[in-house]
Amino acid sequence: MKKVKLSDIAKRANVTSITVSRALSNPEKVKQKTREKIQKLAQEMGYIPNMMAKGLKSSSKTIGVIVPTITNPFFSNAVRVIVNNANKRGYNCLFFTSDESAEIEQNAVNTLLSYNVDGVIIGVISEDENYAPEYFNKLKSFHIPVVLFDRNIDVPHTCGVYLDNVDSGYKLGKEIMCDDYDDILVVSGSLYSRVANARLNGLKMAFSEKDKMSKLDIIYADFNAELSKKLVADFLKKKKPSIIVGLNNQITLGALEACVLNGYVLSVDMKFYSIDEIQTSKNFGVSIPCIKHDIEELGYQSVTQLIRAIEADECGELSDIIIRGSIAK
Amino acid sequence: MKKVKLSDIAKRANVTSITVSRALSNPEKVKQKTREKIQKLAQEMGYIPNMMAKGLKSSSKTIGVIVPTITNPFFSNAVRVIVNNANKRGYNCLFFTSDESAEIEQNAVNTLLSYNVDGVIIGVISEDENYAPEYFNKLKSFHIPVVLFDRNIDVPHTCGVYLDNVDSGYKLGKEIMCDDYDDILVVSGSLYSRVANARLNGLKMAFSEKDKMSKLDIIYADFNAELSKKLVADFLKKKKPSIIVGLNNQITLGALEACVLNGYVLSVDMKFYSIDEIQTSKNFGVSIPCIKHDIEELGYQSVTQLIRAIEADECGELSDIIIRGSIAK
DNA sequence: CTGAAAGCGCTTACAG
DNA sequence: CTGAAAGCGCTTACAG
What we know:
Two copies of one chain form a homodimer.
Chain A lengths: L5 H8 L3 H9 L6 H14 L5 H7 L4 E6 L5 H16 L3 E6 L4 H13 L4 E4 L12 H7 L4 E4 L9 E5 L1 H13 L6 E5 L5 H16 L6 E5 L4 H14 L4 E4 L2 H13 L9 E5 L14 E3 L2 H17 L9 E3 L2 E3 L1
Chain A binds a DNA duplex through helix 2 and helix 4.
């Protein structure tokens, strides 16, 4: 079977395909009667627009979504929200996971360029202070709006949608300070991670307000469970803190496992605090007070800002959006 | 800045864009010297092919991926593997989550048709015996290969990549039969779910071999945590089984939470078995023997089969692929 | 309000 | 081995 195209409808409606095109894409430009006839026919005949042809002349109605990983619930939820919202607004998503590889990320961007995407939402592989891939210049020179998602780096972009990481650290710190713990172990991310450092700084602010900085031990791991598990296990050989604070969900998971392997009963021998929710903690009956981030909102704002930029006449810069988390127990 | 196109390269190479097209897409059709000159120029000038234009005449090199949800780790892992493998083979993925909505699923398929996708991998929203959406006929009439992912329904399709659910149930049953439990609570999926019923049948086979069918209680929930939690909580008010067997990861998570809410200490007051791995159980120190499925393999096979079908001259049917799980403790 | 002409960037037979 | 012609399906100024 062949797909029905504009000219098929045109024949039946006794007009040209130009009018059909207008009736379907710019209805206000066509007389009501003709318009209605055409729309009805299109419906009946099962017309499906050809995006490849459309995208060749006008907007591709396609956006690119690149995230470092999709197995971390933070990102899988974000992707769900982003894709749903984009679809609702008439945009489709070409999707890539970079798996923390700069090369894959780079290739993904090239592919997106080849699809004439209208815009890109990207959570880059690293927010190391020195990560500034060249392709952002290319995107800019082609006037393709770019929303940086969650991870902020120094590159040309339209706007960023981030968490308020200092605030998250500070709020969690305040919560922790409600009790009077003796020794606090904080497991942070990389020394060069802005997110990790912001969270850590927020935490320190809260601690110093109560003069508790001396009770702090800090481990610099990264945002994966494995390294956290290993470093916490090493630490526990020397010292037993009263609580462990993980600065993201993966870190906290790693710390939990280290304690399990060390023979601790969770919640009894060791208490945990976390930035980012540990989604399954309730299923295992372990209570982990945490900073919960509104991922719905993050995803919604990313898409909204991107589409604003796409549909604006001037492709200038938009303001960043900073989303605050809140304590959840 | 404008994108460089074939004709730009052509001018510099003193050939027409036809030759450039061939040098890049069908290199064997062009004299070695010309070919090399063109390829070098394309590289230097930063040529990026326009997929919209390519897709208008020839293959779009785009496939559609639709899954019911991306927050279940089973699917997020599968999507990761599918997208990665597709990219490696030169195909890009338009991605949709149907969120268990038949309407969204349907719209997603229409969108894919409008992109002239070369093929579709779809995990449908339901494997209820009666779910057989019309759009599969449309896909077939347009000769678009379709791989059914994980959920098998009675509709036209090229092939399916499934789990061996009877085998999974049977293997888990054998494992459970190693011990001599008094009362076994099995939490299954919907009465109309083929996957759930197959797993349940496998389980029953193993139980009846040991004449233990009388020790069995069965709850029919669905593949979400909420209902399982509720039904198990209700059950526990009347009776305390020796073990609980969850027939997918979400069900097991729900059962865990019900026990927690009932005041049980996991692993001590209640032991669990599961089909599907509970990824974070090791972090919480709860051991849950389970049937682990090789999602890498599932995803890999889906993509491989789809691309075989796409690139075959005859778009016939391919054989289904059934992937077996194995016990993990 | 509608249409004729031209073009988006690439590819596909068909010649030579 | 290379090119001239035509076309993929749609849209965009420009006329009328």
